[in-house]
Amino acid sequence: xxxxxxxxxxxxxxxxxxxxxxxxxxxxxxxxxxxxxxxxxxxxxxxxxxxxxxxxxxxxxxxxxxxxxxxxxxxxxxxxxxxxxxxxxxxxxxxxxxxxxxxxxxxxxxxxxxxxxxxxxxxxxxxxxxxxxxxxxxxxxxxxxxxxxxxxxxxxxxxxxxxxxxxxxxxxxxxxxxxxxxxxxxxxxxxxxxxxxxxxxxxxxxxxxxxxxxxxxxxxxxxxx
Length: 225
Prior knowledge:
The protein contains ten helices and eight strands.
């Protein structure tokens, strides 16, 4: 988002994909993996990994737009990647799969999966293609988890840096639930280099900080009339 206390506009987002089953996809990460792989034209891998699930029924629902809302959530992307690595079963709370993905990622620089896209939409297909090559080559899941974190961090940082260097923004604010992930936060800060960056210190980065943000926006609008 590009904005200030009075308003914002969307300037970069992950390409939307379906959430098969709606809210159930938040609790069952394999559903997000199915949608991501199908969107990247890798449905055969979903068949291979999740064949015991009702894939045909869910795909039919997605095509019909039934209980399959679109999402550009980074959290659902993390869920999907945790699922394909075998790190996530049914979740007992939101973010559990992403936490497992972070915990299992090896330390150190092992490379990064690419994100594509220009001007707005951030394409995840290149990331999935690189993962599929690693999977076929027998790369350890822990290494793939690290490359995923690095790729997402670099992709997000690249889009933010472009706005700052174009003079459209003065600083970068890293907020939202995905930035509770310390690995992602540190890698994004590293990728942003010497740019001015705002991060959470006294309020949570996830929904717990929404009320304060809403109050600040309301106050700013009241002052400006």
